[in-house]
């Protein structure tokens, strides 16, 4: 029995079925990046609004693949969300997504939607590499960006949104809100500047309107959603679902905006509108994301496959916990209404959730983009006195070397070709040459020299005592 709208609901045991008809709901939100995270996070908040009779819906856009669309079409855009831990099991059938478009085929329809008065909000979960920025957070003129400047079959979210805004400017000049939901500090400001730069290249006539009528709130999202291949039968689900999403119960969404229309549109009590999102953004990036990336490389080198396996290793747990205590918590801003130590302990407990089965190799992806965002600011604020961060970046270097030498095809990084070229052209000086590339590591000479010396020292030490003993000694 396939999950469809005409499914026999009497056969559903613990699964709640949507009470709304999404086809009768107004087009309100255009979302770029309909992956598992979006369907477990933002789409759940919208589902809850729909269950409370709000007239809202999501139209999705995927840029690189139409696989998710093809799967969801077969089941009327219904999918099962399993929120699970040792203490909770909740299964819901969701239907907040009206349809999904494919960026490389549906350029005109996407452009018309961005220009439509019905669309009040554009949201994004496209990961760090989807923004195409350089070390200074300026537009990086990659092959995809150059392609999009010429308005071919568009490859980037920057291109799609920019041409859509131009179309909106020409048709109606209506205000619109664009909300980044990606793990970037100052995400809204970064996105605004990138689109401004793109527009300035192709249609500067609209820039005054853009600055006055397009709002880019800052936001922080939190929730762990891996690529989980569990079959519905594992959760005693009595139907076939090719698009099941498994996530932890924990979720947060903080938005910095006093826009009345946005607050009305996202009128879900579980969404927090705040005056300053930077505090929440900072603790999440430095604690959860910093620990996640650290665990990815250390856990992999210790021989583990999953996050929960690695964090259950006392050596690994103690290293990550002490790293956060000694080098992260001390440099974070304090807030009387928020217990940072409790949040840190909760994060480590969340990592232990055995039902999530989050692969370390997934988190290890795009290290050349994530490490500068998640760790280097902490490194600088500690005035380079960071033995734990030195060890973490050493772990990343050793991970890269292993992947390049043994599993080159499985290395997934935005700068893959560059990393391989730097290593293979001069293996002996790989660390020095890597840190000389300012597109990855924007460090001054002292910071760079200190980090390189410490990493090379660590590598020599590991060769003598093994990686496991190196981590244990911390």
Outline the structure in words.
The chain has 474 residues and is of the alpha/beta class. The protein has two domains: 267 residues, Rossmann fold, CATH 3.40.50.720; 194 residues, N-(1-d-carboxylethyl)-l-norvaline Dehydrogenase, domain 2 (Orthogonal Bundle), CATH 1.10.1040.10. Helix content is 47%, strand content 12%. It is built from 20 helices and 13 strands. The strands form three sheets. It has a six-stranded parallel β-sheet, sandwiched between helices. The chain has a four-stranded mixed β-sheet with strand order 1-5-4-11. α6 crosses α7, α10 packs antiparallel against α12 and α12 packs antiparallel against α13. The relative contact order is 0.10.
Please describe the biggest sheet, giving its number of strands, its sense, and whether it closes into a barrel. 6 strands, parallel
- Please state the overall shape, judged from the principal axes of the Cα atoms: globular
Radius of gyration: 23 Å
CATH level-four homologous superfamily name of the largest domain: NAD(P)-binding Rossmann-like Domain
Number of domains: 2
Structural class, by secondary structure, is: alpha/beta
First-residue to last-residue Cα separation: 53 Å
Q: How many H/I helical runs?
A: 20
Strand content: 5-15%
Low-pLDDT stretches are none
- If classified by CATH, what would the architecture of the largest domain be? 3-Layer(aba) Sandwich
CATH topology type of the largest domain? Rossmann fold
Strand order of the largest sheet: 6-3-2-7-8-9
What fraction, in percent, of the residue positions are helical?
A: 40-55%
Tally of DSSP β-strands: 13
Q: Can you tell me the CATH class of the largest domain?
A: Alpha Beta
Roughly what is the average pLDDT, rounded to an integer? 95
